[in-house]
């Protein structure tokens, strides 16, 4: 489940009013990207960020004002990144604010929230449409569209068909969110924000080994846009981890058995307690050749020996060259598990960034 969605569900279960903020447009040098979210609840709990600083301070103040009202609201607010915010970056950030008051919200029926949760669980791409200027014309201002599960569109046929066509087109493009306009039978213009969610494109990541470095790595990984598979054959090592495991698929099994059901195009990090186990895992991954990255902790000498063994066993040169060892950035003095974990995570961040940039070229 997406972390923001968990925060929304937590607020609902606690019967807290909350505001969901979503960045829907940016221009210039901004501290956030389209799709970034904040969930702020009436109990003062806050999840997420849109870049911090005075921008976020002003946005949180606006959200607090919405929570003080007696009805739900959807509002678009544009924040220029100039003198009015005490900033000199230029450009702007446009944010959609949605307030959900427990006393009068259709969210109590768990309509769109359940649908979105199920689509994330099913790993199915979808679009959430939000009617901005609803004015009580429709019972619900949230519409959810997916290609295979188009089951949450409102009864008004005209706007449902319009949203379905627009959402279907958006799923084939890179841009999101976007604001479209619909003209109804009364010639009134209705603004609709479309936000694409693509769980199928989230990078899968396998971490082999649950030792001290992997345990230092997990709190970083769980804040990144990745699906995590954490594999070790020692249950006691998992028990030593005190962090949140709600976003981690823990597989306590023989390492090679743990490889069987992993998705294709996976990013693999091998950080186990045994050189022999490291070799067996890496050989199995290379033999399948369905990985996007294969990195192993160790020295340059260890990496060379493994590559030589793979070549001598007949594996293709171009596949073996995808194998990386050592991983991370070697430091002369900072050798703690946290220091090592940060450099390993930076490699992953660069990989995801490069991949996303290549998709929009």
Explain what the structure shows.
There is one protein chain. This protein has 361 residues and is of the alpha/beta class. The chain folds into 3 domains: 3-106, no CATH class; 110-200, no CATH class; 202-359, NAD(P)-binding Rossmann-like Domain (Rossmann fold, 3-Layer(aba) Sandwich). Helices cover 34% and strands 25% of the residues. It has 11 helices and 15 strands. The strands form 3 sheets. A 6-stranded parallel β-sheet has the order 12-11-10-13-14-15. Strands 3-2-1-5-4 form a 5-stranded antiparallel β-sheet, with helices on both faces. Helix 5 links the parallel strand 10 (203-208) and strand 11 (226-232). Helix 5 (212-221) packs across helix 11. The chain is elongated. The two termini are 29 Å apart.
**Any idea of the CATH topology of the largest domain?**
Rossmann fold
The CATH architecture designation of the largest domain is 3-Layer(aba) Sandwich
Shape designation: elongated
CATH domain class of the largest domain: Alpha Beta
How many domains would you count in the coordinates? Answer: 3
Physical arrangement of strands within the biggest beta sheet: 12-11-10-13-14-15
How large a portion of the residues is in β-strands, by DSSP E? 15-25%
Helix content: 25-40%
Q: Give me the count of strands.
A: 15
Draw up the topology in text.
Layout: H1 3-13, E1 18-27, E2 37-41, E3 46-48, H2 53-67, E4 74-80, E5 92-100, H3 111-121, E6 126-131, E7 142-145, H4 157-170, E8 178-183, E9 189-197, E10 203-208, H5 212-221, E11 226-232, H6 235-239, E12 248-252, H7 255-258, E13 266-270, H8 275-288, E14 291-296, H9 300-312, H10 317-320, E15 323-324, H11 337-359
Parallel strand pairs: 10-11, 10-13, 11-12, 13-14, 14-15
Antiparallel strand pairs: 1-2, 1-5, 2-3, 4-5, 6-7, 6-9, 8-9
Helix pairs in contact: 5-11
């Amino acid at each position: 489940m997406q972390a923001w969605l968990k925060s929304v569900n937590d607020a609902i279960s606690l019967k807290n009013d909350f505001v969901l903020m979503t960045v829907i447009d940016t221009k210039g040098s901004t501290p956030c990207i389209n799709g970034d979210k904040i969930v702020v609840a009436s109990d003062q709990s806050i999840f997420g960020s849109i870049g911090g600083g005075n921008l976020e301070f002003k946005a949180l103040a606006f959200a607090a004002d919405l929570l003080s009202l007696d009805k739900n609201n959807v509002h678009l607010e544009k924040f220029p990144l100039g003198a009015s915010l005490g900033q000199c970056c230029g450009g702007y950030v446009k944010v959609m604010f949605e307030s959900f008051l427990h006393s009068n919200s259709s969210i109590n029926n768990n309509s769109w929230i359940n649908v979105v949760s199920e689509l994330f669980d099913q790993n199915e791409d979808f679009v959430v449409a939000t009617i901005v200027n609803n004015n009580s014309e429709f019972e619900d201002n949230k519409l959810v569209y997916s290609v295979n599960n188009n089951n949450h569109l409102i009864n008004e046929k005209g706007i449902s068909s319009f949203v379905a066509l627009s959402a279907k087109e958006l799923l084939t493009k890179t841009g999101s969110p976007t604001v479209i306009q619909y003209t109804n039978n009364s010639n009134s213009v209705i603004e609709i924000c479309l936000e694409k969610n693509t769980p199928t494109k989230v990078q899968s990541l396998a971490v082999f080994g649950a030792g001290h470095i992997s345990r230092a790595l997990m709190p970083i990984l769980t804040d990144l846009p990745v699906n995590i598979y954490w594999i070790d054959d020692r249950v006691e090592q998992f028990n030593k981890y005190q962090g949140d495991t709600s976003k981690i698929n823990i597989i306590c099994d023989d390492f090679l058995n743990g490889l069987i059901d992993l998705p294709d195009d996976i990013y693999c990090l091998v950080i186990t307690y045994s050189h022999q186990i490291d070799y067996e895992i890496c050989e199995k991954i290379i033999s399948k050749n369905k990985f996007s990255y294969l990195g192993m902790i160790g020295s340059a000498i260890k990496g060379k020996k493994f590559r030589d063994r793979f070549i001598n066993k007949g594996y293709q040169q171009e596949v073996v060259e995808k194998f990386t060892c050592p991983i991370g950035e070697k430091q002369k003095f900072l050798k703690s598990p946290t220091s090592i974990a940060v450099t390993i995570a930076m490699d992953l961040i660069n990989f995801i960034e490069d991949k996303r940039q290549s998709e929009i070229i």
